[in-house]
TrEMBL record:
Its EC number is 2.7.7.87. PANTHER family: SUA5, THREONYLCARBAMOYL-AMP SYNTHASE. It comes from Acetobacterium malicum. This is L-threonylcarbamoyladenylate synthase. Signal peptide: none annotated. Belongs to the SUA5 family. It is an enzyme of class 2 (transferase).
């Protein structure tokens, strides 16, 4: 099989826009209509859909070959978090430090929320908010987003639009091309529900030691 030609064929059959305010507006319309978009973050490309749309979430899991009970990371600004999570004063201070940032945080989910389809059986919400095209899209959408790295199970996260298309082809409704990604792995995850804060996923571009140093500077852990 000629992999290069296969990718080129897929590339010609999908809709691709360069990052721009117009592209974000079109992506926002697609997401509000229940569709799935691929776009860049500061490090890798991600799949994005409406966090409240159960059908879109199911489809996102299916094209990634992810389990139906796998929680999906949620994009929301810090003002929204208390609507869906139980936050104490210490946790709020940590959120204020790391939102926006390249760090994702585990917060305690309220007993029942409209995000249950995204969080599945987990009692936590993994919250992510970053100064990147994701923030631009979020502000255009006017809704909370669900994101997952642009790769299929056990494969490396896509760092270019071409790699994303090779994974998903026409299974994604719109691709936003921001050029080669600046990193090679997804955001670090920290659990701020426990004291001291625990690492749930490491990332070379923002190591846990750096996170702990920042917390210590603020008298937190």
């Amino acid at each position: 099989m000629d992999t290069k030609n296969s990718v080129n064929d897929a590339y010609s059959e999908v809709e691709i826009l360069k990052t721009s305010p117009e592209a974000y507006q079109k992506a926002a319309q697609a997401i509000r209509a229940g569709k799935i978009v691929v776009m860049p973050t500061l490090t890798i490309y991600v799949l994005v859909c409406d966090a409240f749309n159960a059908s879109a979430l199911q489809r996102l899991r299916e094209i990634r070959h992810s389990p139906s009970d796998k929680p999906i990371t949620i994009v929301m600004d810090k003002s929204k978090i208390p609507e869906y999570a139980v936050i104490d004063e210490r946790q709020q201070q940590i959120i204020d430090i790391f939102s926006p940032s390249p760090v994702s945080m585990y917060v305690q989910k309220k007993a029942k929320t409209p995000l249950d389809a995204a969080t599945a059986s987990s009692n936590a919400i993994v919250v992510y908010f970053q100064d990147s095209p994701i923030r631009d899209l979020y502000e255009c959408c006017g809704t909370i987003l669900a994101i997952s790295s642009s790769n299929t199970k056990a494969q490396l996260a896509a760092k270019t639009i071409e790699e994303s298309i090779a994974y998903f082809g026409e299974n994604v409704d719109l691709y936003i091309d921001g050029g080669p990604a600046q990193g090679d792995n997804a955001s670090p995850h920290i659990d701020i529900r426990v004291c001291p804060v625990e690492s749930r996923r490491e990332a070379t571009h923002f190591p846990f030691e750096k996170i702990k140093a920042i917390l210590n500077e603020h008298g937190l852990e």
